[in-house]
Amino acid sequence: MKTILITGASSGIGRATANYFSERGWNVVATMRSPEKETELNRLDCVLVTKLDVERKATIQDAITKGIEHFGKIDVLLNNAGYAAFGPFEAATDVQVKKQFDVNVFGVMNSTKAILPHFRTNKAGMIINLSSIGGRVAFPLISLYHASKWAIEGFSESLYYELATQNIKVKVIEPGNIATDFTGRSLELIMDESLEVYKTYHEKVLQKQMESFQTNVSTPELVAKVIYEAAIDQTERFRYLAGEDAKFLENKRKESSDDEFMKFITSNFR
Ligand SMILES: NC(=O)c1ccc[n+]([C@@H]2O[C@H](COP(=O)([O-])OP(=O)(O)OC[C@H]3O[C@@H](n4cnc5c(N)ncnc54)[C@H](OP(=O)(O)O)[C@@H]3O)[C@@H](O)[C@H]2O)c1
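A: This is the predicted complex of the input protein with NAP.
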């Protein structure tokens, strides 16, 4: 039996993935910031619910140790925990900028660093990072989130080569719009009322983004399925898209020049 450790398993994609792997006979270390609130995953066989806050290194180490003690070893780390800051960059406070990177980038690096000694001892392992189609293309007013996901893309692509030397695979998942609490609990709205100049544009873009989340959206179970396919894929593949909107944007990006693509995005938010 194989074991996956998932960060951010309390909701959305992380939760769906915990269920999906458990239904297919995997052991799951379902980690979350508030495990005391969990009432369902801890009822499943072969699921260990435990605390992990990607901003607190001690909790990462503790969750890994508990997972290994409980299941013998960990085969796959899924770096899923994340959220999005939305709003004009100029309005973002230093705390908001730092927090976006603390969770989405340094959180992934912290968890990755903590699992590597175990994977090297086993001479095998896999790290799957939740990027986003927003790690390949960018929309207006999401500069911090895009910066964090583009960082994950570069980090992961470089690690792919480096860790292959240790028989450790690195993969990224790039979902489009997914119906989770991402636009609720995981959306931090950035606005400074004194920056009135952005107000109309901000409202228009936010409305467009929300409409797109209503009409053009896939389920977290679809992403869980893609993550599962990545986890059992024996090939050297690195990128996995999830959702028709992600595939459309990826194709559009590939077949357009930078100018053409950016005109296309501009026209969408005019
Ligand atoms: N939904 C989308 O459209 C979409 C698209 C592309 C990529 N993604 C990516 O998918 C991942 C999961 O998002 P989701 O859509 O499933 O949203 P979600 O349902 O809101 O889940 C976000 C998860 O991240 C956890 N989290 C936040 N900060 C954390 C921290 N410091 N330490 C540990 N866990 C933390 C949350 O835990 P708490 O319960 O403790 O808050 C929650 O479990 C994110 O990386 C996101 O960027 C989502």
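The beta strands are 3-6, 27-32, 47-51, 76-79, 84-86, 125-130, 168-175, 187-189, 239-242. Residues 7-8, 10-14, 32-34, 53-55, 80-83, 103, 107, 130, 132, 175, 177-178, 180-182, 185-186 surround NAP (CB under 6 Å).
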